User: Fold this.
Amino acid sequence: MEKESEIVFPGDFLATAEEFISGYGVYEEEGNLYSAIMGRVVRDTERMMVKIVPVTSTPLFLRVGQKVVGRVTDVKSSMASLEILKVVGKEREISGERKGIVHISKISEGYVPSIRDAIRINDFVRARVLMARPAVRLTMAGPDLGVILARCPECGVVLQRKAQNMLICPSCEATFRRKLASDYGSGNVRSRKI
Ligand SMILES: [Zn+2]
Assistant:
């Protein structure tokens, strides 16, 4: 079985030469195996071989104007924190900073009295990059931006759209306010069209 794992850099320790034999992109020194190139480690546990699959594409850094998909990791009274998972339309992994902040003033086009009426922990959202460095600032204002997937905190099931910015749990029928993207519930997350 081949198991891909973390990205390594030249000189990173991979395993001892007793555990694995060296494959592509790996060199041995004094009984230890190190990566010779930057890439993703593949450990073939049948042949007990470790090799590196080079990262050939140029790194993907966040840029102003890009749309991203993230998971909400924290919600405070004036801002929400997101772990940015991907850039919309790109399959490559993001390099560099992956934490983004949405300020309450950037949650929606209109006035938002409470941030928790718009976004909650573990929601998946689509947002646009306002500032990429030194910190990533995001906006959710715009019809195609906002929450794209949310679950009921009690039942764990995916909430369904009930009204423009209202979700309902199909199991317990509790309702929740959110700032929804226009395509919420269209299966965008499951079909990976995000
Ligand atoms: Zn429920």
Notes: Residues 152, 154-155, 169, 171-172, 174 surround zinc ion (CB under 6 Å).
